[in-house]
Input
Amino acid sequence: MSTLKVVEGDFSGWTCAACGQALELRPVDLEYLGSRFNVELPACPACGLVLVPEDLAQGKMAQVEKLLEDK
Amino acid sequence: MTKPPAPVPFWAKPGLRRAAGEALRPGGLDLTRRGLALAEVAAGVRVLDAGCGPGATLDFLAGQGLRPCGLDLTPDQPAPGAPPRVAGDAAALPFADGTFAAVFCECVLSLVPDPSRVMAEFVRVLAPGGALVLSDLFRPETAPRPPDPDGSCAAGAFSFAEVLGMFAEHGLYPRAVENHTRQLRELAARLLFLGELDDCPTCATGYYLLVARKTGDAPCSTTPASA
Output
């Protein structure tokens, strides 16, 4: 299954606090309750730290959690 | 004055292909593989994929050593060497009686106008002892039929009792039934991630895989027990 593009916007201004590297959009596996989704998120190319934008966490990710929890 | 174009049905939207891949349904080819295992068909036999769409199941079945044929209202032109596809209506199959050892119908029955007629046609083209591999959405017995704003299969989903009733009516005997609602939820989640769903209209809906066998020409007179 192809990587899902779940964020829009410019993240070029974000850098990793630990490595100082500019974040890049990378494929990331999100796993919840046994289900796995390969999505594209900004991440540090050096240490792999992933940025989950607030609107994604409170929007689509919250909807998906609710769906998988069958609430 | 021109008539406005008909809305694109949900299954034909590019977003579904991005979320579900070429199989265009919950569970993808994993469920097809499971159905094939439960159907226990011999190598080299003729099988039908009714509602073959882009042909993902056809290619898979050919790769398993079977001789698949696809049917769709408007089939894509197959690539050279790919399994054949026939244009036709599942309610009037253009095949002789007893042609196929198995019929696959994946996430299609909920879209057809006359599912009982389609089921009768499946039985007709199955050889005695042949298997019907059916996967589709189901709605809870108590849930009302949902509205159909975009041609989604959820609007045409039957209750499980209704499906078993059609089996009984047409002489099909369930051999295996599995609940794969998780795969439906995961597809809905991918659609949510892609922004193709604003909310979750399928939350009350489940997804089943059902394998039944045609054991003879006489219709079954009793309702089979659910597994």
User: Anything to note?
Assistant: The beta strands of chain A are 4-5, 24-32, 35-43. The mean pLDDT of chain A is 90. The helical segments of chain A are 54-58, 60-68. Residues 9 and 53 of chain A are 10 Å apart (CA to CA).
